[in-house]
Design goal:
Elements: H1 12-28, E1 37-42, H2 49-62, E2 67-71, H3 85-97, E3 102-109, E4 115-123, E5 128-132, E6 145-151, H4 156-167, H5 172-189, E7 197-199, E8 203-205
Parallel strand pairs: 1-5, 1-6, 2-5, 6-7
Antiparallel strand pairs: 3-4, 7-8
Helix pairs in contact: 1-2, 4-5
Length: 206
Amino acid sequence: MRPADTGAGPDPATTERFAAEAATRVLAAPPRLGSVRLLAVDGPSGAGKTRLAAEIGDVLRARGVDTAQVSTDDFATWDEPVSWWPRLAAGVLEPLAEGRPGRYRRTEWSAHGQPYPGSWVDVPAADVLVLEGVSSGRRSVRGVVSVLCWLDHGDEAARLERAVGRDGEWSRPHLRAWQRFEAGWFAVDEPWKAAHLRYSAEWTNH
């Protein structure tokens, strides 16, 4: 299946601090997606985006903030790493911008690693939408993003081994191809340059 980003990523203490800072930042920022504050967590596969996004969501909910979360892994496949975006825009971003709930059909995977249209997912018009995954902070969406987090933890080889350990050895050639693609994508899109918060070798604020 397409890699869900649950790699080891930063250590738990750093993740907790980063999540708290991201939550504070997004609540202080103006909403740009209608009345919704969109927080994007972008970065390469295996960097720990899913765990960080979940932590941010937990922090926000603990502060009494109505929070929804969407992963780009619900859309992406090996063959369509980023070209699925119109489905996300039409099903989620455009309705939320108009004050309506969103809805999309999740990509699911067969036992043989083949994608197929899965269950429908409802997305409420919450106070904050946490959007995480590769290309979630892409250039075309930055105008409606309140806070962009860039996560690039660990080198490419380490991220590959984490992902293979998670998904199985059969996924190694797919993951290598995915890493080659995302390296080219990020080189052009440069989301880290627009990030409000970055975690790489060191956590930096902007």
